[in-house]
Amino acid sequence: MDKVIGLNDKLDIANNLLNLIFKLGVALGGGVFVLYCWRIGYFPQDVSVGDGLLLILLAVTFGGFYLFFVASLVCLGITLRRVWQELQRLYSFSVNIFNKRTGKNITYTPSAIERMHPELLIFAAFGLFFVIGFGISDIITSATLLLCAWFSALMWRDYQQNAQNIFMLKHREPLTDDELKRLKKLSSNQPFFIAILLILPLVIGGVTGKLLDGTMRLANIRTEAAVVHIKEPYAKYAEEYGLKGEKSNLGTEYSKFSNVSILFNGFGKNVVMENKKPGGVVQFVVPADQVYVVKSK
């Protein structure tokens, strides 16, 4: 009977974990989608029921990708534990020299990170890939992502330590009033740690825009360079925004435009496009049934 109960408990934990991941995925994905729409200055209108279902599916996809991104940074931070230890040791040494020369008493307590487990190496490898990929053209981005990985690892350590203390208190009977207060405080801190862990990459990662754009490209909502055929009179409308039309093989009522940046496509009744020209960047909207995307790069 104990084994059956133990198995049922494990199944309940797994079920609750999957539900939590699904809810987090939808919430994060929805937040990412809204943040991207706010970033480009466009929110889809007249969304159909089918579009709504696709939007939920994409929200889960976005959320899953972002959770994977955060988990990779956490594992990378844990894997680089020895590097953080040496850097902190060097900083402590510098603080001691400064105190001796200035007569001040600045204190610094190194922050420890939990030991690395071999199974984390796969996620850490992806974390390193993200750091190199996002920072390939900007070394500052790589540096901020590494800093984010360290802070994320510290936050995960605090969450794990909190969870252990909660577990020990829950299995200790009877509890005193002080222990009950401490258990309540520790339990209320857990969502706070998770929230910070999820927000950190967006706040100090320096890759918010790249992450949003990359996620939208994966979902085929955004395309950096596309060949489109636009129907009149919207073709003239596009030419007024600096695009140069060519003869289209779809007929005389269409014009062909190359290297067009599509910011939003797939939901609602409009396609949002962007054109970069010497005077700046212009954005224009064309009804989805008046444009055909026939090739993307």
Task: Write a concise keyword list for the protein shown above.
alpha+beta, disordered N terminus, elongated, single chain, 297 residues, six-stranded antiparallel β-sheet
List the topology elements:
Layout lengths: L1 H39 L8 H31 L1 H22 L18 H14 L4 H32 L6 H28 L3 H11 L4 E9 L2 H7 L5 E2 L6 E11 L5 E8 L2 E8 L3 E6 L1
Antiparallel strand pairs: 1-3, 1-6, 2-3, 3-4, 4-5
Please describe what this structure looks like.
Helices cover 62% and strands 15% of the residues. It has 297 residues and is of the alpha+beta class. Strands 1, 2, 3, 4, 5 and 6 form a 6-stranded antiparallel β-sheet that branches. Helix 1 (2-40) packs across helix 7 (208-218) and helix 2 crosses helix 4 (121-134). The longest helix has 39 residues, at 2-40.
